[in-house]
Design a protein that fits this description.
InterPro entries: CAP10, O-Glucosyltr/Glycosyltrsf_90. This is Glycosyl transferase CAP10 domain-containing protein. It comes from viral metagenome. Keywords: Transferase. By secondary structure, this protein is α/β, with parallel strands linked by helices. It folds into four domains: 164 residues, no CATH class; 215 residues, 3-Layer(aba) Sandwich (Rossmann fold), CATH 3.40.50.2000; 72 residues; 99 residues, no CATH class. The chain is built from 17 helices and 22 strands. The chain has a six-stranded mixed sheet. The protein starts with a strand and ends in a 6-residue tail after the last strand.
Length: 664
């Protein structure tokens, strides 16, 4: 019974775990067996103790990918009767990235228009932004549960005898699992701890790019897989590889290998897009390369290896300046060159981009010498190659590039030998049989839990025939020291120096990043202090205003108390109680026995409290005019004067009737 091969899209962790668990807990147990096909050596990441095909490891890995990173990967599930490739598709912005993306832009390397466009793009898509390595872009829409019936990797493994189990295929331009318990994508998150997502066991993660200090197991990349599946004789007819799944027939000539002696252009050529984690010539080596001027160079930028003008709209994180986009003045865009065109140059510069540049092996087939710029990214064939045997290394910052080219001009025979070694190596590797064997034996090794390292005879066959100084290191039970030539020793020495330089550059970059972090922390503290100072000053000002208002209120209250309750009569004894008594209140005049009521603004009969007090031997009396009874009536006089009670003492008012009439 033939196996069934399917594709599926899964959007949630729960669904992914339910599917993957079936391929770990059910089905016939895989029986360890001898590997078939071509013997291949394996990278060191394969032997890491974190890898385990178990339910706890499945839970850990799916949580890490789908809960923490929201990263799009494929879960390869292999059973007795079927092979299921599930796209893990969480199309929302990961919370840890969202917090970073919403921070204000503080970048001197982008202009106001760029800053506005970045802010608008981020704010518009804040719920659906995808972060890969250092690139930020919206998720591609995926509404159905079936993406397509197949893809290149499912086609590659179709019909192979594979072990039962679950594996993660990371087919993106990103490397996702560090070996130190920190977050990946350090240009975005810095060296942030994984916290609860720092698991000790993971389902094996196979990625199309490796990176130093990462555990991802490198496997053949898209260009290599597409080459062996579809383009073994037509690679020169497309744009240095392929664009999606569509062949671009820009050159009908299928041959793009030019013999060394027929290469007429003694220059180093580069054509490629401005990819890479950086958007200035300080941090992006492709941009720096395009800006270099020399008679030894023909280096220009193109977009996606095509004929368009240079793309400057991509939003990305720069290792030095943070979130931004490509500077529009990054160097002139260049005319597109096919692989056949580039094969006429003696030297081709290989510079990594967002991850390792996928066209390394295909470029080696041109027969030109590869000048490979040192990088933190690794390829699936790095452990099978040696510098100065298959390629010539260049420092990561390009500082020795022109010196390397001049050395090549003086050592043409040596360069011819290295170019031939590289071409023969690529020819031995770029075959469907070899790549299928690599994938198959990698999965078997992981499934059995005991990685193997086998001498790759096919990969080194050409080097042996030419008696080159290549020495292939093989991890075996017994290590055997092989005699090396002086050239190899020199090459090893140079490699160590290059590694030291790279380590030094990495340390300097780390120090710079730490310095920026401290400066940012210092600015934040200063801003907090300034805010606290302003708050204290505002509180003091408010307290001062409150005190002034209280004082003003108290002042008004005192002034109110000082106001005379009623008008005071000032008159001589002869003038008292006459019709023409003058009241000291705006010169108002009231009649006999009246006073001016200030609150009511009118003259009224004086109550007893307004009459003058007089002391006698019998006590204190109020002097009341004897004719007042006639004026106000006997009943009122009795109520208000004779029977009145003193409010202060509670006693009856004593009155003394006096005659106040003037003598005639």
């Amino acid at each position: 019974m033939s196996k069934k091969y399917e594709m599926r899209v899964i959007h949630t962790y729960a669904d992914a775990y339910a599917v993957g668990a079936k391929y770990i807990t059910t089905g016939a147990k895989t029986v360890p067996r001898l590997r078939e096909g071509v013997d291949v050596p394996f990278p060191e990441q394969l032997s890491d103790p974190k890898w385990e095909i178990s339910l706890p490891a499945l839970e850990n890995t799916l949580r890490y990918i789908m809960e923490l990173l929201h990263h799009q990967c494929y879960m390869l599930c292999i059973g007795d009767n079927d092979v299921l490739m599930c796209k893990l598709d969480v199309q929302t912005t990961a919370p840890i990235f969202r917090d970073i993306l919403e921070q204000p832009l503080n970048n001197s390397e982008i202009n106001p228009t760029q800053a506005k466009n970045i802010r608008e793009t981020v704010d518009k898509n804040i719920d659906k932004l995808r972060v890969m390595q250092c690139i930020v872009k919206p998720f591609a829409s995926s509404s159905s549960n079936t993406e397509s019936k197949t893809n290149e990797y499912l086609e590659l493994i179709r019909g192979l005898n594979l072990p039962n189990g679950v594996f993660i295929l990371n087919l993106t331009d990103a490397v996702i699992l560090r070996n130190d318990g920190k977050m990946p994508f350090t240009m975005v998150t810095g060296k942030t701890d994984l916290g609860e997502y720092n698991f000790d066991k993971h389902i094996p993660i196979l990625s199309i790019s490796g990176q130093r200090k990462y555990l991802d197991i490198p496997i053949p990349n898209y260009d290599d897989v597409m080459f062996v599946l579809k383009y073994p004789q037509k690679y020169a007819a497309i744009n240095n590889g392929y664009v999606g799944s569509k062949v671009v027939k820009s050159n009908p000539d299928p041959s793009y290998t030019t013999n060394w002696d027929d290469k007429k252009i003694a220059k180093a050529v580069f054509r490629g897009g401005p990819t890479g984690c950086g958007y200035t010539d300080e941090t992006n080596m492709r941009i720096r390369l395009a800006k270099m001027k020399s008679r030894h160079l023909d280096a220009k930028l193109t977009v996606k290896d095509g004929n368009e003008s240079v793309d400057t709209k991509a939003i990305k994180f720069d290792p030095k300046y943070g979130l931004g986009s490509m500077n529009t003045h990054i160097g002139a865009s260049g005319n597109f060159l096919t692989m056949a065109d580039q094969s006429r140059y003696k030297y081709i510069i290989h510079v990594d981009g967002n991850v390792n540049a996928y066209r390394l092996l295909a470029t080696m087939l041109t027969g030109s010498l590869i000048l490979r710029v040192t990088s933190q990214y690794t390829s699936w064939v790095d452990h099978m190659m040696q510098h100065m045997v298959h390629y010539v290394p260049v420092k990561a910052d390009l500082s020795d590039l022109l010196d390397v080219i001049r050395w090549c001009e003086r050592n043409d025979d040596k360069c011819k030998e290295i170019a031939q070694n590289g071409m023969n190596f690529a020819r031995s590797i770029l075959s469907k049989k070899y790549i299928q064997s690599y994938i198959k034996n990698t999965l078997w090794s992981l499934s059995e839990g005991r990685p193997v390292t086998i001498l790759g005879e096919m990969a080194n066959k050409t080097a042996k025939k030419r008696k080159s100084p290549v020495v292939v290191a093989v991890a075996a039970a017994k290590n055997k020291t092989r005699k090396v030539t002086k050239a190899t020793k020199d090459a090893i020495k140079k490699a160590k120096e290059a590694a030291k330089e790279q380590e030094k550059a990495a340390k300097e970059a780390a120090k710079e990043q730490e310095k920026r972090a401290k400066e940012e922390e210092k600015r934040a503290k200063e801003a907090a202090k300034e805010e606290e100072k302003r708050a204290k000053e505002a509180a003091k000002e408010e307290e001062k205003r409150a005190k002034e208002a209280a004082k003003e209120q108290e002042k008004l209250a005192k002034a109110e108390k000082k106001k005379p309750k009623e008008a005071v009569i000032k008159a001589t004894d002869d003038e008292k109680m006459t019709e023409n008594v003058v009241i000291e209140d705006n010169n108002k005049k009231c009649g006999r026995h009246e006073y001016f009521n200030m609150s009511r603004k009118r003259c009224e009969i004086k109550p007893y409290t307004k009459w003058e007090k007089v002391k006698t031997v019998e006590g204190v009396f109020r002097k009341i005019p004897s004719d007042l009874k006639d004026i106000i009536g006997e009943e009122r006089f009795k109520r208000e004067y004779e029977d009145a009670i003193d409010v202060a003492t509670g006693e009856k008012i004593k009155i003394l009737l006096v005659d106040t009439k003037k003598p005639k």
